[in-house]
Amino acid sequence: MSAFQELMAYQRDTEALAQVGGRLGWDQETVMPRGAAQQRGTEMGVIEAVLHARRCDPRVGEWLERAEAPDAAGQAQLREIAREHERSLKVPADLARRLAQVTSQAQGKWAEARANEDFSAFRPILEEVVSLKRQEGAALAQEGDPYDALLDGYEPATNAAQIAAMFDAMRPRLVALRAAILERPMPQGLTRQFDEAGQMELSRELAGAFGYDWTRGRLDMAVHPFCSGSGDDVRITTRIDSADPFNCLYSTIHEVGHATYEQAINPDYALTPLGRGASMGVHESQSRIYENQLGRSRAFCGWLFDRMRTSFGDLSVADADAFYAAVNRVHNGYIRTEADEVQYNLHIMLRFDLERALISGDLAVGDLEAAWNDRFKQDFGYAVDCPSNGCLQDVHWSVGLFGYFPTYTLGNLYAGCLNEALRRDLPDLDDQLGKGDLGGATGWLRDKVQRHGGLYLPAEVIGRASGMPVTEEPLLTYLEAKFGALYRL
Amino acid sequence: MSAFQELMAYQRDTEALAQVGGRLGWDQETVMPRGAAQQRGTEMGVIEAVLHARRCDPRVGEWLERAEAPDAAGQAQLREIAREHERSLKVPADLARRLAQVTSQAQGKWAEARANEDFSAFRPILEEVVSLKRQEGAALAQEGDPYDALLDGYEPATNAAQIAAMFDAMRPRLVALRAAILERPMPQGLTRQFDEAGQMELSRELAGAFGYDWTRGRLDMAVHPFCSGSGDDVRITTRIDSADPFNCLYSTIHEVGHATYEQAINPDYALTPLGRGASMGVHESQSRIYENQLGRSRAFCGWLFDRMRTSFGDLSVADADAFYAAVNRVHNGYIRTEADEVQYNLHIMLRFDLERALISGDLAVGDLEAAWNDRFKQDFGYAVDCPSNGCLQDVHWSVGLFGYFPTYTLGNLYAGCLNEALRRDLPDLDDQLGKGDLGGATGWLRDKVQRHGGLYLPAEVIGRASGMPVTEEPLLTYLEAKFGALYRL
Question: What is the mean pLDDT of residues B49-57?
Fold first, then answer.
């Protein structure tokens, strides 16, 4: 075997073990008995220790020096393996293991504190997580900025300054759009109850319509919907609110966007570094365009209105236009995942600033709740009423995802570019969506983005797919047009 | 740290990884998407490769040479670690990995072949499994007998000759008992349907009554009921037959016997070699005594009769005596797991002889179906009607469990000894069982057997608990008395 082949065989085992770790994470959030939390923390720590040791193995460095890639995909494999090898070498083994162990347990503490509306119960373990992440950031950054180093783990080839500049460019137009909308009459929402079985049945149908391969996945319930796994075992979760069926349906469509991305990747890349999405931002671009530009479009809402009436009878809104307005209602609210397209990115900006301050040390965990509440009041104009609507609403920080939030807005921005190109390439898209036919859109995305997996860097894959440089302009133009029409601005 | 402490810290990680492998097995049999079978095989192979390398690590040998155990439990730890180290060193790494990979996939092939009644679809991969197990047996046995070496993996300190002698001693009395019973009128079984929800609700209640700790476990459905995991995450499965509620209820009680054993082990042994049952035979003694000597006793059946009438209304049998007779009906049938206490061990003897012949090479996989059917006719007097009632009924061989079946009869035999001692120590046991109170019995078993985990060798733990040498006599005496009375022999 050549050095390249030896390296790839070794890497295949590492990737398989990483899949096992991911499967344990799925188990923890869906089916694990409550009393198993501590033992699971130990198990997660050991799996991470094995993975870390494999990624740091000196043989990887030797193979990388000698390996000759047979083609462009091989070069990308070497790029990703080297990146992971170098990042892993910077993080001490004990720290990597401790992080896996603590974040596994912190997740349970977060869920409990959130259920009990008690930030103080979560505070001690969050302090430990933040302390460990600061150490990890410092180890990764060496002379650079720790937050940038953490961000780089989710979105290569960007940094906090670029993100901040992007946010600065977006904020005034989003704030102005929001203000204009909130002066207009609020459309009516749905005012009845929707049974769980009916919501789940429709969720399953929508998942299939958006291209989810059920033979290689499954749908379960979770506190915080997520997608887990790569290759032939990509699982999604959703949640149900009997008064708000859109919570369940659009969570499902969102996670199907993530899942079909993983399922569509070139099978030659299975159990290699290219066998997963290009970055969290690109991943989010798929879930966002499925959920919003496609799923919340006027054309698709027309089809969904009829489909929901078949399942549930009268929907308490007059017609498809009123239904479309209800789906896209811009409303006051506390929860990021339930936010409309206009306000969503303001939620991300809040988290971005707070998490940077936590990692830099400018904000102590003990002051987080007050800082969140102050900032929320300032940005949204009303006060947080309880911790589960405030700084306890998201799972991310408990599991150590610092530097992750901005990838949501990057995903929105990528989705804006892709949507413009998709509509240019498929002039009859709305006709298809109006029939509940997602085949054209998901086929385009599969071909342009998804099948490539990690072959290209984020801006490259979005740039190649959309045929334009990546900027916030298409997203803002789309939002202003859509909501301008909806609210007669 | 002393050599002993270093070794134990190392071993703790190995045990945690073994738990992860077990969790993947649970996942595969309960929730895994069908299309993930091949990828899962790869994952199982890699986990096994990591475990095998850890168990063979030269440091383990060095620590074992230098380690001084602080107490008797420490000595038992060293005994078990050395045993596993020596066994692992004999099995080539490639073989260990290949076995994990192939058996993971073979399980899916078995389930498919069983559903389609097609042994020929299962034959090729079973040939591969048998070939690999013969290699493993030969590697482990060195100069000795390969089947003995495989058996030793499930039940230390016994061999096939001892098992065969035990079977020879049991068979004439079981055959005579069966023949006498089959000449008597057959009691009536239940003749109505039982809804799934009611069966599951009662299963959950029974699990709790038999001591299952729900905070550290869960109950799911599986084709073949099983128990999985140790310590704080011990999961059970069951299955439902709407015409036969005893299938679900007694499968659940059986698996609860396994599960409470794991849950009751001294927590100081968590994630060590002593933190699991002493052997498969001792494990089976717990599931068997829960299911049969306790669960199918006249006293408990009296309580269960009332309880089931509360849930389901009229049961189609006249009274508690008729219910007890229905629960313990000795009837013709093909399926081992549904067999009554009298005939169960005859099923095991059939499998023991066939699997020894497969491992020795005297029987080819291609001839297995015919050999099974011939032997079944000879032992039971009627012909197998379809493969799912014949050689495709059990999952065991697909997952490489050769040498495992005899531990079921060993378990019955151990349960016979324990039952005699339990009834000696708790004279009012039947009063308790008649009230549905399992606390006295399960408390005795917890104290005498379960809490010790792997501290003692099988015959030692059963001998200490029952205060008698381990023989088949108590089991046979119990069966002859119970069924003699039931059938007025």
Answer: 97
**What pLDDT is recorded for position A44?**
95
Catalytic residue among A29, A80, A155, A255: A255
Domain shared by A102 and A198, yes or no: no
Among B27, B43, B231, the residue with its CB nearest the CB of A39 is B231
Helix/strand/coil for B331:
coil
Find the domain containing A131 and state its range.
3-144
ipTM exceeds 0.85? yes
| A466 and A394 within one domain | yes
| Per-residue pLDDT at A56 exceeds 90 | yes
Contact A40 B233 (CB under 8 A): yes
B50 vs A46: CB contact, 8 Å cut-off? no
Using CA atoms, how far residue B125 sits from B133, B390, B405, in Å, is 12, 18, 20
d(CA B167, CA A375): 77
Q: Is residue A241 in some structural domain? A: yes
Nearest CA-CA distance, residue A388 and chain B, Å: 25
Does the structure show a pLDDT above 90 at A224? no
Assess if residue B79 is contained within a domain.
yes
One domain, residues B165 and B219: yes
A338 catalytic residue (yes or no): no
Q: Which site among A10, A46, A112 would you substitute to test the B interface, given the most B Cβ atoms closer than 10 Å to its Cβ?
A: A46
Q: Which of B113, B144, B175 is the last residue of a domain?
A: B144
Residue B153 lies in a domain: no
Q: Could you give the CA distance from residue B278 to residue B77 in angstroms, rounded to a whole number?
A: 12
> How distant is the Cα of A41 from the closest Cα of chain B, in angstroms?
10
The chain A residue lying nearest B49, using CA atoms, is A13
Cα B335 from chain centroid (whole Å): 15
Q: Does the pLDDT of residue B224 top 90, yes or no? A: no
Q: Which residues of A touch B232 (CB under 8 A)?
A: 33, 35-36, 38-39
| Mutation site for A-interface testing, chosen from B46, B51, B55, B218 by largest number of A Cβ within 10 Å | B46
Q: Residue B197's pLDDT is what?
A: 96
The number of C-beta contacts closer than 8 angstroms across A and B is: 102
Sheet of A219-221, strands arranged across: A219-221, A235-238, A227-228
pLDDT of B223 > 90? The answer is: no
